[in-house]
Amino acid sequence: MKIRNWMTPNPLTVTPETLLMDAKKLMATNNIRRLPVVDKKGRLVGLLTRHLIIEAMPSGATTLSVHELHYLLEKLTVGEVMQKDPLTVGPDDLVQNVILLGHQKGIGAFPVVEGDKLMGIVTESEIFNAVMGLIAPREGTSLIVLQDVQLSKEVGATSRIASVIEKRGVPVEAIFTMPHRTRAGNNVYIRARTPHAANLMADLDAAGFRVVPIPA
């Protein structure tokens, strides 16, 4: 599954010159927590988050008067607060790779860029929905899990899986891979468009894959 199928395309954006309080209102109005920051040519230059806005607010221990605080906040721009050069992903990146990157870096959202053009933004909730859309039970489908598939060591493993599926003639809605947390190899999740996947599972087992039966 590719990020382009799960991202929010053409997201709301701000520029470095946008006043921070205007960006804050934009987030509140649209119930969003992040805004990509683009320059006048539409190129991504930063990312503004609700957390960064909160951090920019003066603390209660300040000695400034209410009038002085209000004046300073009105002058503050997005460019002074934003995260510069945020990590990005591409529209054709695989969802599972983006999940791993987010876990490794502790990041909950990524701007999606192609070349120097902002294509969208993808958040942890959208990625969660993508994964749940695959593994959640659905009428008329079956979930097949292959354990410990050595994708990095066995050249052609993915092609062998596809070949077995093609020979059986079972339509597939999605195939999703994730590294196992404690063992070598990947788990491969196959959402087959059939409620009766026993024959396909037997074929995959005969092809040397470790098939784990999962209720549809």
Automatic annotation (TrEMBL):
Source superkingdom: Bacteria
UniProt-listed SMART domains: CBS
Keywords of the record: CBS domain
Keyword 4Fe-4S: no
Residues of the signal peptide: none
Protein's UniProt keywords contain Repeat: no
Domain CBS: 7-63, 82-140
CDD domains: CBS_pair_AcuB_like (cd04584)
Protein name per UniProt: Membrane protein
